[in-house]
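Amidohydrolase family protein, Leifsonia virtsii. Tokens?
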Amino acid sequence: MSRIVLRGGSVVSADGPVRADVAVDGDEIVQVGQVDPDVADTVVDASGRFVLPGFIDVHSHADGLLGDTEVALALLRQGVTSVIAGQDGVSYAPGDGAYATEYFAAINGPHPSYRGGGVGAYLAAADGTSPLNAGYLVPAGTVRFEVCGRHDRPADDDERRRMAALVAEGMDAGALGLSSGLDYVPGLFQDAAELAALCAPVARAGGVYVTHMRGGYEANTAAGIDEVAEIARLASREAGAGLRVHVSHFHADADIVLGQLDALAQRGVDATFDAYPYIRGCTLLGMPLLPPEVSTLPREEAVAVIADPARRPVLREAGERRATTSASLGPDWPDMITLAHIAAPELAWAHGLTLREAAHRAGTSPIDFALDALAASRLECSAVMAVRNARPATELARIFAHPAHTGGSDGIFIGAHPHPRAAGSFARYLREYVRELGTWSWTDAVHHLSALPARRFGLGRRGAVAAGAVADLVVVDPGTVADRATYESPRRLATGIDDVFVAGVPVLSGGELTGALPGRGLRRTAERPA
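Tokens:
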């Protein structure tokens, strides 16, 4: 079998970019340095470009979409070769996937083939069906739903044991860890003791507890970090092994983020985090507006409550109060929420408008338009959320400079007007924080976007351009790589990365998909490149 030789480029080492060829045989890098191609070898001209290990998106919502050609192209054009799914406590496995498909319809969408079978079945469904790889976190909210249903009460001892058994089963099947989403349902009802019980099998297996912390971050960050530390303490004691933690989309003022990371370290908690290179967020429209007792209901019951004129005054008052008093929004909330996805064709005109703009056109109030949209779409709505205090890129740079930072997009691909982070995050890291601001060297970029994620999440022989490593590779033009997605045009593809290989197979050539599907479900392993 012929090799692939990437010739004439530079490989980023500890000392920066160094001129080197890369030879790939099968799914493995076999030589880095001066390579003299054989006649049978396929040679890719990498002159003037850098050869980097494929980027790992440690927080993705492409759970069921990696076989979608538009999604795959958007990720590969950024250099992403692997994603970690199962985020925020809600995804398909374990169970039959119905809860996640309903509750996270506007975030993850339906899975094309998973209908049950647990984590092992989810990972198997990723084998050979996409150009990209997918790892998976056992979602704590889905686990709770499988055992406790929609109850908002604390789990009893037997329920905790049953939930922990489901987590252990998922870890045995190759899950990378456990995720929680403590502002979502049913994560909202999971206390530290319950989460610690679920994290104990994760600690024993050497996995990672990944959390969307409680309370909306920003000014409430300290309380969220206190809970993370308590969960780690209790789980480590129960497991007899230290629990490693990872904070999802850790966005707040840089002093808050860095101070709280120091606080975790002082408590002996082994922590990493991700943060994407944008100020605004994106989530379910109902999350900041609907009271939990409505969000907990089965979808059709919730829609009936929202659509009931007799209930509207209470919901209107509750929604306005929740948005106005939230840590992230505040009194100007109708101007801070931009409609990303409404699964109601008659409201397609509202995509990309703020709630205030959409309400004005509809001749109603912002809260009533939001509630009407939730009812019409059967809760399948998402929104891009501005923040009270917009932070400049230099503020984010202080956060990204922390050695425990990993690249994560929190990318949501569902909707007519999604957040640009899905199509732009990794190219934006390289354009803004390597080329323009100099926050990272190219060596730093490899650490944050490839090496540390692979090591942290047990992704084996990935995250390096070295002999013996899996040949997940991206060829980057350092002078032109850039994000093009904006809040106004969120689906524009990145530029400057035209050639990508997954397991040694070309999946992007000349900026276009090749049609090859070498991606696989990534099972947790301690194996690393030599």
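The chain has two domains: 53-279+391-513, 283-385.
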